[in-house]
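SEQUENCE-TO-STRUCTURE ENTRY
===========================
What this section holds: a protein sequence and its matching fold, both as plain text.
Tokens: labelled as protein backbone structure tokens, with as many entries as the chain has residues.
Question of interest: how does this chain fold, as expressed in backbone structure tokens?
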Amino acid sequence: MSKQQDIFTAIMKNLQEKNSDKDVNEEEEKNYGEEYIAQLKSVCQNFLKKESLEIGQIVKWKENLKNRKLPHKNQPGIVIALLDKPVISTDDESGSPYFLETLDIIIGIVEDGTFLTFYYDSRRFEPY
């Protein structure tokens, strides 16, 4: 490797470390006020509130609990099955929002003219 390449590599490494430190520091310094705390409590209560969902029922995401691409916000889906034994997500990354997620409901939607079914956590849905 040439001296010029070594210098370039060192500069890039230094910049990456500074940007990484800056991102961490900005998050640590962010001030979360009462509005955030109130929203956090409200969303948690909504998540923990168990809805009585039934096969054939039309459902949608609860407010602030959409964690998948589909269905879209306010897009109706239909309950296909309620699982007696939930499937536990096998996502390997503990930092992922899907890590060990309890999937206990199958919901169907129509996307681009095709009927699709997906497994979800029923606590994220409410009647449409």
Q: What stands out?
A: Strands lie at 58-61, 77-88, 102-111, 114-120, 125-127. The chain has a mean pLDDT of 86.
